[in-house]
Amino acid sequence: MKKIILEKLLTPYLTWCARRIIQINQPIVVGVTGSVGKSSAKEAIYLVLKTKFSTRRNQGNLNNEIGLPLAVIGDINPKNDLIKWLQTIFRGFLLTLKKSRHYPEILVLEMAVDRPGDMKHLLSIAPCKVGVITSIGVSHLAFFQSEKDIFREKSRIFKNLPQDGLAIVNFDDPFLRGAKTKGKNKVFTFGFRTGADIQATEMKIGYAKEIGEGVSLAQGTSFRVNYNNIFLPVRLPLVISQAQVYSALAAMAVGLYFGMNLVEIATALKKFQSLPGRMRLLRGKKGNIIIDDTYNAAPNSVKMALSTLALIKTKKKTLILGDMLELGSIEEAAHRNLARIIHPVVSKIFLVGERTLNTHRELRRLGFAKDKIFHFKNSTNLAKKIGKIIGSGEVILVKGSQGARMEKIVEKLVVEKEKKNLTRQEKEWKKK
User: How many helices (H) does the chain have, and how many strands (E)?
Assistant: First the structure.
């Protein structure tokens, strides 16, 4: 009954309110989409812009046909609270009556695309002046035939940009490298490859101190950025991932569009921190370091996470990998192909779920030691045993799709004070 009310009554009402609010207040909309990294890019962009402008972004998962209108209305997530829903409905109505003096100048809106038609609908609510695509990957192939179809749907974000708008894309992504808009809008690129408009080079992971068992505490990432032959050292003290460097580069591109200079942008990004479950560095029990990347998983994001693990200076590298979901016809091959990337990086691996059996078989075929591979039916089973079977002084990367619920394992690995930094800790998630 609740679902029917939400879909049939509330969603059309919220959509109407959001359209009307944007028409009246005329905020500049920065839309962010992509198969990997869109949430982190949104956070980085917001962090930069809020230092100079009145800015709002959608928090959490408010990025779909229900969440995006909620973000436009007030960035409130009523969840199952009837009082909050009534307040949101009333607030939405009030904002449709006249222009608000306090409405943000800029909305940074993450736009999730799960199936054909999603982007068109979201843009009908919040037309973009700046569109950002972080990557094109093979997530959601259950609803698309190919990566080209995913690219076609996500690139709709550029379709109706105004003449003074801007399309921003990841130059390292082969689908996006040659991206063009249908109008005369400029395409601005970011990435590590030579030829990007704003390019990162010399990325390094910094270290604080050794915490025992030969494990150093990775602390922050540094790189040089090149823009118009201006070179600037940039440090991100709170992140360690190449994926987060991409997010920072996207934020730099947006900041430049809004007239900010590289120094003030880089200063703002010093506070940039990974969201829960996105390459979050946590202190573990037994002197272990946990890289929590459990929010979701797709082939590209697993490869990027492994590339970060490869950079960390320690001999004890462990991977705990759960199933990647929604991959459609490429599911078996995608899990099998990961083995070649995993093999040279990790010394021990725990696999979770039916689909990772394909990874297991391929690892054994490649010669990975039998006594260093462990397989579990689900995350609950592994979570019960992980405390006893995991070693000490290890750097442990934990990753898997949302449905694999890999955060249950991280919860058992980290020290108590780190549990507040985990993803999916809400009561409704805990019950699932």
Answer: 15, 15
